[in-house]
Amino acid sequence: MLLLVSSCLGIQLGKRVRVKISQHFFEKLVRLTLLALSVKLIYSSLA
Questions:
Q1: 27 in a structural domain
Q2: Is residue 43 part of a domain?
Q3: Can you give the residue range of the structural domain that contains 29?
Q4: One digit per residue, pLDDT tens: the chain, 47 residues?
């Protein structure tokens, strides 16, 4: 997880404008993934 974030920051230093868009998308993707994982954990603990 930290590796992904640090590599994303490294890319941001290289290509500003393009990465602002992709970073925004990346943050949304991470939130959706975390949400899905937490829902999955809740369901598996209830089952």
A1: yes
A2: yes
A3: 16-47
A4: 677 777 766 766 776 666 677 778 889 999 999 999 999 999 999 87
